[in-house]
Design brief:
about 350 residues, alpha+beta, Jelly Rolls, metal ion binding, Plant_2OG-oxidoreductases, oxidoreductase
């Protein structure tokens, strides 16, 4: 299948091809007031603040996870140059020829490196205005051999992203009233799965009828996201869509389905979507952090209390959950709904 990037560059498109027209509903377009902004977490207070600062930021994490499932992290220590280099080398990958990228057009979900378009074109009723590169980078690191600097840059970026995620897992554990290493230990993060996902959203001639990614929740525990200067990410909050305008060099963080299962719904995964524009290419880069693929995730005993609060989800291997999500049309939290008790 032709990538969206190639479609834009090789065809003079006055309008969006019919297979990319997304069936928006009236409630899909309701935007929140401009005053609605996602919480901001100062990472330095979590890692090196005074006891009072750390206590305050843990409380802020609790509020962000309970009320939003989404927050912006500043003062995280990720070098700005590394973030710029990562976005640049990711763009360079998509600038390769279709033949060069085609080497990674994997057919299997768990291929170490996979290049494609839309989400899963075999089940997507409407195609999404999005090309993507997905790379499993932990516990075994993989990288395409082109561009030549992709391996070195992505390996360092993903290593640092894991370190940030581990500290955030500590903050989340403490915010739940548990030991700081609770999530890391319970979910076996040290040997857990880290998936690098690079999304490319080329300019669209009719952005009002197409979509980059439809409303969905992420499959893992925690996703860390950076993007270039172009907006497009929207988060569902209180029944409306909140457009996200991140501060320069901040990292956006959201809780995923496995976090909702683990905490038995105490912290819920958040529904979000990617809109497109007709001005320029937007690129975003996410690292999805989860347990080992073979790990059975189920509500932890600390969040289950017999008849008062029974387990709301059945246990399922993380690998099987990913297979379940990939076999279905990407649609809100329908995958999570399928394992509710």
């Amino acid at each position: 299948m032709l990538s969206v990037k190639s479609l834009v560059e090789t065809c003079s498109l006055p309008s969006v091809p019919s297979k990319y027209v997304f069936p928006f509903k009236s409630h899909d377009t309701t935007l929140a007031e401009e005053s609605e902004v996602i919480p901001t977490i100062d990472f330095s207070f979590l890692t090196s603040g005074t006891p009072e600062q750390k206590s305050n930021v843990v409380q802020e994490i609790s509020c962000a996870c309970r009320e939003w499932g989404f927050f912006m992290v500043v003062n995280h220590g990720m070098p700005k140059k590394l973030m710029d280099d990562m976005l640049q080398t990711s763009q360079s990958f998509f600038d390769l020829t279709e033949e060069e990228k085609g080497e990674y057009r994997g057919e299997q979900l768990f291929d170490p490196i996979k290049y494609g378009t839309s989400f899963n074109a075999s089940v997507d009723k409407a195609l999404f205005w999005r090309d993507h590169l997905k790379v499993y980078v932990h516990p075994h690191f993989n990288a395409p051999h082109k561009p030549s600097n992709f391996r070195e840059i992505s390996q360092e970026y993903c290593r640092r992203a894991r370190e940030i995620a581990k500290e955030l897992f500590k903050g989340i554990s403490l915010s739940l009233g548990l030991e700081g290493n609770y999530v890391e230990k319970e979910m076996e993060i040290e040997r857990g799965s880290q998936l690098l996902v690079v999304n490319l959203y080329p300019p669209c001639p009719q952005p009002e009828v197409a979509i980059g990614l439809p409303p969905h929740s992420d499959h893992g525990l925690l996703t860390l996201l950076i993007q270039n200067e172009l907006g497009g990410l929207q988060v569902q909050h209180s029944g409306k869509w909140v457009p996200i305008s991140p501060l320069p060099y901040s990292i956006l963080v959201n809780t995923g389905d496995q976090m909702e299962v683990l905490t038995n719904g105490t912290y819920k995964s958040v529904v979000h979507r990617a809109m497109v524009n007709n001005r320029a290419t937007r690129i975003s880069l996410g690292t999805a952090n989860g347990p080992p693929l073979g790990k059975v995730v189920q509500p932890a005993p600390e969040f289950v209390d017999g008849e008062n609060r029974p387990a709301a989800y059945r246990g399922i291997k993380y690998k099987e959950y990913l297979e379940l999500q990939y076999s279905k049309e990407l649609n809100g939290k329908s995958c999570l709904d399928s394992i509710r008790v």
